[in-house]
Amino acid sequence: MEQRSYEGYRWFFTSSGKLVVGGKSSVQNEDIMRRVGNDDVIMHTSTPGSPFCIIKNPNEKDLEETAIFTACFSQEWKKLKKKTEVHIFKGEQVTKRNGMKQGTFGIMGSVNKKKVDLKLALTIQQGKLRAVPLTVAKQKLVILTPGSFDKQEAAEKIMKIMRNKHRHPVSQEEVMSAIPSDNIDVKG
Fold first, then answer.
1. Full-prediction pTM beyond 0.90?
2. Are 19 and 108 in the same domain?
3. List of residues 6+ apart from 33 with CB closer than 8 A
4. Based on the domain organization, do 20 and 109 belong to the same domain?
5. Are 128 and 52 in the same domain?
6. What is the CA radius of gyration of the chain?
7. Segment 140-181, tens digit of pLDDT
8. CB neighbours (10 Å) of residue 21?
């Protein structure tokens, strides 16, 4: 993706500096998958309701971090799962048959599988508040896990922690854009 054009999607940079981009909706998943190269690595949870997340030339740690990010922004988070399985495959394996729903794709051949914990840290990347795997966050401002707060309640709690504990006020819009939707536990 072009410089900063990824900001309208789910995104973060791995600890090795690789950009990971994922869709926020079926429309965005469709758009992302149109841009995938044959050698790009793609991830999706083993169950429906996940972003397709793309990374180029990942190392093993990048794969782990991308899998965690993919899982945390999936329906598995809303179902309060603590762990989930993520499928890992290449762009050349993706198919789109006539009649498939928007944002839905088929995968040819075998996939690698990775079981990951659903846990994120809020940190600042590229001047923006991002929810990232714990190993990525240089400064863990807030820890997020599946829990009982809806997105609005979680955002209010996060804004209070950021203002009081970290002296770093953030807008509600910035928080809402960074965090998973609903069923969130917040630890500052």
1. yes
2. yes
3. 42, 52, 94, 96, 105
4. yes
5. no
6. 16
7. 999 999 999 999 999 999 999 999 887 888 999 999 999 998
8. 22
